[in-house]
Amino acid sequence: MWQTVKRRLIGDDPDSGLSSRRPRRASLELRLPNPYGGKPWVTATLALSSAPAARGETVRIRAHVDSCFHAPATPGDRAALGHEAADSGLRAGLTRYGRELAAGATRRVVEYVPAGLLQRLSEQRRRGWLDMQISTAPLDAGAAALMPAALRARYGDELPQSVVGAPRVGVWAGPAGGPLGGMARLAMVQFDDGDLDPTARRAPGERFSLNLTIGELIEPATADSDDDAS
């Protein structure tokens, strides 16, 4: 099953004639443009990698989403900026014009969003991170060895386990700190084959470790908010 999942994530096809023992990397970036011009409403990146070891290998999945739905406060201002964006699309060629047609449709949908909700969305910048590592290598420290170094230095290796056979989980939430303030949340999950019930059936020599980290940062939006991942 693990090999099937890995092939789907990384594109590792044993029938392709390519060695499956070499590192592999793939990445993707998606953006949702702001229909009123300016920085994109949403920027999302996804990175996949596979690193073989002497025995087993480690697959890492990282994702980052940065969103801030900047929009003019009044319908009149939104209409004016929407008209300017459409004019620039007409002058920039057919491809750009097609994108502007889609943006125009988005603007029409936005007009049906309640003003209070739209204002709250435009006042917040939300950033989320996901880092998941799955390894079939025999790691001495197990899943703790897969925790990002910065988090391991701050929170340590051990996460509490309340039930045998269940993942070890750590959750934190509190003020984000910094000049902008805001709220931060962090969740960490670790799981090893050693956490399984001793009576559970496993393939001989099978090893499995997983470390999952999910973080979210919500801050007030500013005019100079950087839309790049950090």
Q: Which key terms come to mind for this protein?
A:
disordered C terminus; alpha+beta; 26% helix; 7-stranded antiparallel β-sheet; elongated; 32% strand; 7 strands; single chain; 230 residues
Write the SSE topology.
Elements: H1 2-10, E1 24-32, E2 42-52, E3 57-67, H2 75-91, H3 94-110, H4 115-123, E4 124-135, H5 149-155, E5 168-175, E6 183-192, E7 209-220
Antiparallel strand pairs: 1-2, 2-3, 3-4, 4-7, 5-6, 6-7
Short characterization:
Helices cover 26% and strands 32% of the residues. The chain has helices spanning 2-10, 75-91, 94-110, 115-123, 149-155; strands spanning 24-32, 42-52, 57-67, 124-135, 168-175, 183-192, 209-220.
Provide a descriptive summary of the structure in words.
This protein is of the alpha+beta class. It is built from 5 helices and 7 strands. It has one domain (2-70, 120-220). The chain has helices at residues 2-10, 75-91, 94-110, 115-123, 149-155; strands at 24-32, 42-52, 57-67, 124-135, 168-175, 183-192, 209-220. Strand 2 (42-52) and strand 3 form a beta hairpin. Helix 2 runs antiparallel to helix 3 (94-110). The chain is elongated and about 60 Å long. Mean pLDDT is 75; it is low at 77-87 and 226-230.
